[in-house]
């Protein structure tokens, strides 16, 4: 993938601030630094998003998340929490189309970062919730 910025970073064609590397993944500081230590974890194999992962690659990549998370926690003992985010497709705020996982350290409530989960609990009946669950489960079984 010659035009992918993350592939170029992995191949050392573009400089980065490397945090971790092994044969499957490369982790580096996000240049935006939403908070100090904001790190991206990317598979070395180019996959666009979560929908393109083979199970073995997903296992390898996601198994590295706790390793990098613990490194952040040790590096920044003042850290009070950590957001782990994986955006997939443009509507879900993916802006670089090489799969990547954000690890965003949280230091205080006023960090320049927020997530909002709407509460639509009253929007669906119990029957509708069961229909939704059944529809998803049927796809996994297919």
From TrEMBL:
Stored Gene3D superfamilies: HIT-like
Signal peptide span: none
Catalytic residue positions: 100
Domain HIT: 5-115
Pfam families xrefs: HIT (PF01230)
PROSITE patterns according to UniProt: HIT_1, HIT_2
GO molecular function: catalytic activity
Motif (Histidine triad motif): 98-102
GO terms of biological process kind: nucleotide metabolic process
Domain of life: Bacteria
Protein name, entry field: HIT family protein
């Amino acid at each position: 993938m010659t035009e992918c910025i993350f592939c170029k970073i992995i191949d050392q064609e573009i400089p980065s601030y490397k945090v971790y590397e092994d044969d499957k993944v490369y982790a580096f500081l996000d240049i935006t630094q939403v908070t100090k230590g904001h790190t991206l974890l990317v598979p070395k194999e180019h996959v666009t998003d979560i929908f393109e992962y083979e199970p073995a690659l997903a296992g390898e990549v996601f198994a590295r998340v706790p390793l990098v998370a613990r490194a952040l926690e040790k590096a920044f003992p003042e850290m009070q929490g950590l957001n782990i985010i994986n955006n997939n497709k443009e509507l879900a705020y993916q802006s670089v189309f090489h799969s990547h996982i954000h690890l965003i350290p949280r230091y205080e409530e006023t960090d320049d970062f927020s997530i909002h989960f709407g509460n639509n609990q009253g929007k669906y009946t119990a029957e509708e919730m069961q229909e939704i669950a059944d529809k998803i489960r049927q796809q996994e079984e297919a």
